[in-house]
Amino acid sequence: MMIKFYNTLTNQKEEFKPIEAGKVKIYTCGVTVYDRCHLGHARGGINFDVLCRFLRASGYEVTYAKNYTDIDDKIIDRANERGMSTKELAEENIRIHDEDMASVGINPPDIAPKATEHIPEIIEMIESLIAKEFAYAVDGNVFFRVRRFDEYGKLSGKNIDDLISGSRVEVDKRKEDALDFALWKASKAGEPAWESPWGEGRPGWHIECSAMSKKYLGETFDIHAGGSDLVFPHHENEIAQSECTHAKPYVNYWLHNGMVNIEHQKMSKSLGNFATIADLVKKFHPELIRFFVLSSQYRQPVDFSEKSVESSVEGLDRIYGALEKFELKYGREKALALPGGHSQIANHQHHFMEAMADDLNTPQALAILFELTKMLNLVQEDEERAAVIYKVLIELGEMLGLFQVPAVDWFKTPRIRHEGDDALSDADIDALIAARKEARAAKDWARADEVRDQLADASIQIEDRDGQTYWKRK
Question: Which of 68, 80, 274, 302 could disulfide-link to 269, CB 3.0 to 4.6 Å?
Answer without folding.
Answer: 274
